[in-house]
Design brief:
heterodimer, A: abc type-2 transporter like fold, 2 domains, 16 helices, elongated, B: Rossmann fold, Alpha-Beta Plaits, six-stranded mixed β-sheet, four-stranded antiparallel β-sheet
């Protein structure tokens, strides 16, 4: 075992002292992630992307105060906000937003009535995303008038669905972000109203007055739903599992983790391939003529590659969090708070990646073949798995990058249900590692 | 005498893709005594590397066995390998590691650790005169320095048998001398057995206590230099460089017909140092070398020249006394560098 660890240590040490290799392994994926994040994550300047096609479906049935879903839809469609009451919401100069670009600069939104039609449009690539506002949106956002119900019920999560396509993942992410921004004031205002009502009912005299009030008195609450007046800071509520973060963070999570896994594939097969160099320089023969078994040499080599991959992905995840922290001006850990799940996912991804490396090198007859095959396989998996910014539907699930990135995204949003990801990665890794090791052992005969 | 290495019917058969067997080594049996420098000579493809690879445990023999210090390389490979130190012709080191890190790494492969490993490393560094550069990366070393580290790694486990494969290849005369002196010191000061291969006949002559000559996978001669030269009858050689004759067989028949010529060798390659290294450089086809073996070369010279001059133009002529190269040529019909 000591010999295996010594060989593995040597592999790790060699990589850690090679500046050019480190630049490729860490610098390149970080640079790519940062550039994509800045370009599409609205952190660091104006958006430079083209107009995104999006379908808007408002199923909201509305309520006493009007149809809040329609308000959301109107904002997304860049249309005037229709009000169903007489209340006038005055914008003070202090609370007026700074000059911003209209949404129509970013979104080419089209109103549809049928959610299935909208989803189909996304699947067919007509729309980058579909925003579907549910029938009970207003009723869920509005707090119940009855104070007894107010005590019993919790602030309900909005159920707005942003249906995105893997083929245009970045655009869908941006639509999610915009939708979240539009909806956030409603959530905030809902909580504020709830708080106000609770305060009123804390004093019985106020409560009597409140319950006897005219219906029109409540119309004033509608002002609270004006997106431009929501200035109360409350904890953000997630629309779905990846919407708890900003667009920039989401891009770092998705694109950054995809780049980390993608570049680790290169580390895997080039690391395993180094055994050919050892054979050429007779280092392998020298090792084999020592009292060290062939399997110890192979195990040490593969363990070393495994260590390098784990460290590479780990460092990239840390660096991505540092970038997010710098961007936010506060410590931001992108990968959730379940350390055990994160470690397990990291190890599973590493095993699957090194499995690919061993398999590729074992399959090739020469180092040149291994280089060609390794490059092709890495690029293919990246293409399938979404490392280039888009996914290929169900085919993406053939790539370990998809399962890795999906797992990292889940953990990032606080969802630790990544059992399937772990299972797929482990099975893939074990099969490729076993077959690859067997093939590889045959290739290193001297 | 106590044998450090003993091979018994050691053989290796490779199988081609078309299932044709190639008998690289055919049942070789010989022994190397403890504390001697033994040179194994043979032209390329003779089976020298395969034999040594089997002895050092790199490849599995197809038949027979080799015993290192009494341990079977097939049955007890770990014990046998523990006694061997290998110094390959290539610089078998990690260039990105320092000399000391390389020694540490390979020392660990011999299960050395802690204080003992440090002591061995210091010992080797001092022995190979590497103190000043021990913390420098190998890729910053000169060729001679790399060779010294390469040898040092092979000595780290204090082997009883050191296999050195052309350790002076590509080094300058000063470093070459240093390496040859090191080989002598290994035998004389540390009582190590050295298995040495080289293409340089003068090196083999200077170093070897005994020499084995291998050709076509078989040991065709084995003994001290004196025994080997005596074996071929201590004949002189007339080495004549000629323009390549149009009718080679007629010329050779005429020479062989001479009653005092015991053997006639014919080569179309020259024998200049370095010309055949790597097997790529080919002698211009116009040149040829005739070697005539006889008891008294100077006396026969005029008659031989007369025969040759009738058929082909002579470029040069030399009379050589018996030496190891003559033995090799006599036994194999080829120069060592072929």
């Amino acid at each position: 075992m000591e010999k295996i660890l010594t060989i593995a240590w040597k592999e790790l040490y060699t990589v850690s002292t090679d500046r050019v290799l480190l630049l490729f392994m860490l610098g390149t994926p970080l640079a790519i992630s940062l550039i994509i994040g800045l370009a599409f994550g609205s952190s660091g300047g104006e958006l430079t992307i083209g107009v995104i096609s999006v379908a808007i479906v408002n199923l909201d049935q509305g309520g006493v105060e009007g149809n809040l879903g329609e308000t959301v839809a109107s904002i997304l469609l860049s249309q005037p906000i229709a009000r169903s009451n007489e209340a006038t919401c005055q914008l003070s100069s202090e609370s007026a937003p700074a000059e911003t670009r209209p949404l129509s600069d970013f979104l080419n939104a089209k109103r549809l009535d049928d959610p299935e039609l909208a989803r189909a449009g996304v699947d067919e690539g007509i729309y980058a995303a579909a925003v579907i506002i549910p029938a009970d949106f207003t009723s869920k956002v509005n707090p119940p008038r009855d104070p007894s119900l107010l005590e019993q019920t919790q602030l309900e999560k909005t159920q707005v669905e942003v249906y995105g396509s893997g083929a245009s993942a970045i655009s869908a992410t941006i639509v999610r972000s915009i939708t979240e921004t539009v909806i956030q004031p409603f959530v905030t205002a809902s909580a504020a109203i709830r708080g106000t009502v609770q305060t009123i009912f804390a004093n019985p005299l106020n409560a009597i007055e409140f319950l006897n009030a005219d219906e029109s008195a409540f119309a004033g609450f509608a002002c609270a739903y004006n997106p431009n007046l929501g200035n109360i800071s409350l904890e953000r509520q997630a629309l779905d599992k990846v919407q708890a973060r900003s667009a920039f963070e989401r891009i770092l999570v998705r694109f950054g983790s995809a780049q980390a896994v993608f570049f680790s594939l290169f580390t895997a097969w080039t690391g395993v391939q180094s055994v050919y160099r050892d054979r050429k320089t007779w280092v392998l023969q020298r090792l084999l003529s020592s009292p060290t078994s062939r399997w110890s040499i192979l195990a040490g080599k593969l363990l070393g590659v495994q260590w390098v991959i784990v460290l590479q992905i780990l460092l990239l995840l840390v660096f991505l969090s540092i970038i997010a922290s710098v961007s936010n001006g506060a410590f931001t850990f992108l990968w959730g708070n379940n350390w055990l799940a994160l470690v397990m996912l990291l190890l599973s991804v590493s095993l699957a990646v090194s499995g690919v490396g061993v398999f590729v090198v074992g399959l090739a007859r020469t180092p040149e073949q291994a280089t060609l095959l390794g490059t092709m396989v890495s690029m293919g998996l990246a293409l399938l798995g979404g490392a280039f910014g888009f996914r290929l539907g169900e085919f993406s699930k053939l790539s370990l990058i998809f399962w890795g990135v999906d797992g990292f995204e889940s953990l990032s949003s606080g969802d630790t249900a990544i059992e399937l990801n772990l299972l797929v990665l482990l099975i893939q890794g074990l099969i490729l590692f076993s077959v690859g090791s067997w093939l590889f052992n045959r290739r290193v005969q001297v | 005498m106590d044998a450090m290495v003993e091979t018994k019917g050691l053989g290796k058969t490779f199988v081609r893709k078309d299932s044709t067997p190639i008998h690289a080594v055919k049942g070789v049996s010989f022994s190397i005594h403890r504390g001697e420098i033994f040179s194994l000579l043979g032209p390329n493809g003779a089976g020298k590397t395969t034999t040594i690879s089997m002895i050092s445990g790199l490849i599995e023999p197809s038949e027979g066995d080799a015993y290192i210090g009494g341990y079977s390389i097939r049955q007890q490979p770990r014990q046998a390998k523990q006694l061997i130190g290998v110094v390959p012709q290539e610089i078998a080191l990690y260039p990105e590691l320092t000399a000391r890190q390389n020694l540490w790494f390979f020392g660990r492969m011999y299960s050395l650790r802690g204080k003992e490993l440090r002591m061995r490393m210091d010992e080797v560094i001092e022995f190979m005169d590497l103190e000043e550069r021990q913390h420098d990366r190998i890729d910053t070393f000169s060729g001679g320095m790399k060779r010294r580290v390469n040898i040092g790694v092979g000595l780290l486990n204090r082997p009883q048998l050191v296999y050195m494969d052309e350790p002076t290849a590509g080094v300058d005369p000063q470093n070459r001398r240093r390496i040859l002196d090191t080989v002598f010191r290994l035998r004389d000061e540390y009582q190590m057995t050295v298995l040495y291969t080289t293409h340089l006949m003068e090196e083999a002559e200077e170093l070897s206590d005994r020499i084995g000559i291998i050709d076509y996978g078989e040991i065709i001669a084995l003994g001290t230099q004196a025994e080997l030269t005596e074996r071929i009858g201590a004949e002189d050689r007339l080495v004549i460089e000629v323009k390549r004759p149009s009718d080679e067989e007629t010329l050779l028949d005429a020479l062989r017909a001479h009653p005092q010529a015991s053997k006639v060798a014919y080569q179309v390659d020259d024998l200049k140092d370095g010309d055949r290294r790597g097997g790529n450089t080919v002698m211009p086809a116009e040149e040829a070398v005739l070697t005539v073996y006889c008891q008294n070369g100077r006396k026969l010279l005029a008659e031989v020249l007369n025969i040759i001059a009738q058929q082909v133009e002579i470029s040069s002529i030399e009379v050589r006394q018996p030496d190891l190269e003559a033995v090799f040529l006599h036994l194999t019909g080829r120069a060592l560098r072929d």
